[in-house]
Structure formats: C-alpha cells, structure tokens
Amino acid sequence: MSTNTIQELLNKGAFILEDPHTGLLNIGPLCELDSHTGRFVDYDLKTACYLSEPDYQLSREELLKAVASFKKSKGFREWSFSSKADYLKSFKEAKNCFLNTNLNKVILYRLAYAEVKNEFGTFFNSLSSLLSSNKNGYIYALINPSKSLYRLGLAPEFLFKGSKGSKYETIALAGTGGLDEELLLNSKLIKEHKAVEESISCELKNKVSWGEISEERHGHIKHLSSKGVLDIKREEVLSLAEKLHPTAAVGVMPKNFNLGFSPGPEPRGFYGGFAELLMDESSFALVLIRGLEIRDGEAKVFFGGGVIRESVLEGELKELEMKFENLKVLLDL
Question: What's the Cα-to-Cα distance from 167 to each of 156, 283, 305, 317, rounded to whole Å?
C-alpha cells in the first residue's frame, strides 16, 4: 500500500469506517450492488453495508500521513441556524404527546448552515482535524467528488461490534452534560438513558446483558454509557443493524410511534442513520451522528437531543448549544 494509491482512491470517491473492535480505519471505493463480490454501499450513506473485506485498513496516523499533501482550507463562512421558534414548537408538540399518548422519548434537532468555497479542501481540513485528535469515538466518512458530496463525523456509539469467536456487544449512550456535571446523580438523564437500554432489549427479546452505567467523555461534553453483551449467533449479525435501528438514542420510543409533527427543520437524511461493515473476522455498525455534510457549496451540521416527559426547554437548548460547540472544535468548523 502506497500513499499515492490511497490518495488516488480518495480523489475518486471512497468510504471510511473506523472499526470499534480493532481501532483501524477501513477504506474502500464507492460501488453499487455487485452480485460477484456481495459489496454494496448507499451513495447517501443513510445505511451502508459491505459484505467483504475493505481495500485498505489503516491507523489514524497512517491516513493522516496519506492526506498530508492535500491542499486544505477552512472554507466555512459564518454559520446560521434553523429557527429556534420551530424547535420550541416541536418541543411543545412533544410535551403534549407525553401527556396524551404513550410516547416515552423523541429526538428533536436543529441545523447549522454555512457557505463553503472549497469543498474538497474544507473536507480534508476537517478530516485531518479528526485524525490528529485523540477524541473518543469512531470516524466515518463518505467522499463522492462526482456528486459534490462529502460527509464526515465521529460516531460516539455503535449498534454492535464483534469478531469471530467472541461475544458481540452493543452500547446505550444517552444523557448529556458538561464536564463539571454529575450525570449519574441526574434522575432525568438516568431515565433517558434507561429508555435506550429498554428499546434495545425489547428488539433483541432480552438477549442482552447490560453492564453498569458510567460517564463517558466525548470532547467537551459527557454522556451516560453502558455496554451490553449480546447472546446471539453469528448468522444473526447479518440482520442485526436493521433490527436495532433506530434505537431510542436516535429515534422515538415506542419505535413505531407516529409523531404527527416534525422533530426538526427538514428531513434528517444521513443524520441518525447507520453504516455497517460485515467481514470474516470483524463486523460492526456505527450510528451516524456528530457529523458534517458538504454538498453543492453548502455545509450542514445536524445536532439534536433526547426529550422525555421531564425535559425542560432551557436545559435542552443548552445541550444543543454544547453539542454544536463541541463539533466546531472537533471538525475545525
């Protein structure tokens, strides 16, 4: 593997998915369904699946070295935001549903927008920022120059991970606070987190054993986190991501609840989707949040949070602000 080979692949179009089990970045070309190789990726990376080995597996340091010669620029103009009034309206709708229906939890989100002059250089500036950081999470990216489409993020959670001969794991990650907050003493955050555990256990018919809830740092914020060990057979992994997604961490609870109102300013697209890689030795699926999209000269950042009956508007707005500021540092926005 040479640096030139990696650069050529990235220039043509590629996906990057970091394996939570091995810590390696899996890199391969974009392609449609191929009956000979069994490889498939959705160009919008709402859900993506590879059924064979990726072309390359690199460490963060190796990929950072490979993209060092790319011209980079911090091409974002001033950021503007979706209407706070629209968020308030959705929040009130959610509160009404909590009172009058069986809705337990919903993710409400906002958007930030900015004009981008140099898409390619801006994307690789943000990618280099991620690669050179030691922040907790798993890198995902989609590079599609022919469609003027770039996506990049640091997923804080996975739907599952595992390898041949070992137990598969999942994670529940919900409940957010600042670094100076005691999340484990906050009953609202504990309830929000437990809702995610419950949604996963329900989908797996209780074939999961949960560990203790702990605090986990992600940049300048913290989350409540717990690992679950799955009691499943290897062949069940093929349909595991579709069965679990979306968990209450990124969707609604109950899962099939019809909201009747918009949880955000526009359809989520890739935000909250998943990307999975199914290989002989190691398989995993990442949850696509904490990300940036650059398309046709515009950058978008989605940032959201879980709302339950006990949620307070001021607290939710503060959480969204913390998450966006965290992303600005993470992706050098």
Answer: 21, 11, 30, 39
